[in-house]
Amino acid sequence: xxxxxxxxxxxxxxxxxxxxxxxxxxxxxxxxxxxxxxxxxxxxxxxxxxxxxxxxxxxxxxxxxxxxxxxxxxxxxxxxxxxxxxxxxxxxxxxxxxxxxxxxxxxxxxxxxxxxxxxxxxxxxxxxxxxxxxxxxxxxxxxxxxxxxxxxxxxxxxxxxxxxxxxxxxxxxxxxxxxxxxxxxxxxxxxxxxxxxxxxxxxxxxxxxxxxxxxxxxx
Length: 219
Prior knowledge:
It is built from 12 helices and no strands. The longest helix is centred in the C-terminal third of the chain and has 26 residues, at 190-215. It is flat and about 70 Å long. It has helices at residues 2-15, 23-31, 38-48, 51-61, 77-89, 91-102, 106-114, 119-130, 132-147, 151-156, 170-180, 190-215.
């Protein structure tokens, strides 16, 4: 979530810079992955991260040191799945941050430029405080979506959280226990599934409510 939102606000700051050329093209490139199906992108990345499939190509390019079972190693599997998810959904927070930054009146920026304020101070002292409510809402949306991630794990690995439960998340645990049934019995446990759902709800509240109180202004 942190990487996704930090990159989103970084890209949004670049895309709202009026002196930057080709902003529409870059904006389209960043948003294109969002339009693709998760199963499609998950399968493609599964092939790209497979040393058998991508190994010869990397060897020819001189990147042989990258040939390793990224999704088969417990130390790197969850990181790879997280980066795949971040790559696909980075366009949503970026566009939301772009909309929030464009909503800032130019009068504030022009006054700061007249006073000789640097671009970094303009961002930290003017832009960021003004988009604080948007930052909070975007943080909540990405927190909830990433916390309940299921499809990206299912597409790149499987619902069993391979390898050896290294990529097992709340979503896959709920599906495996409450819907599909744990192996080797394979009998769903609705009671355990309901318990997982209830715990998930309370954990989400612990993350959402403080964020709302900290970022949303009071009337």
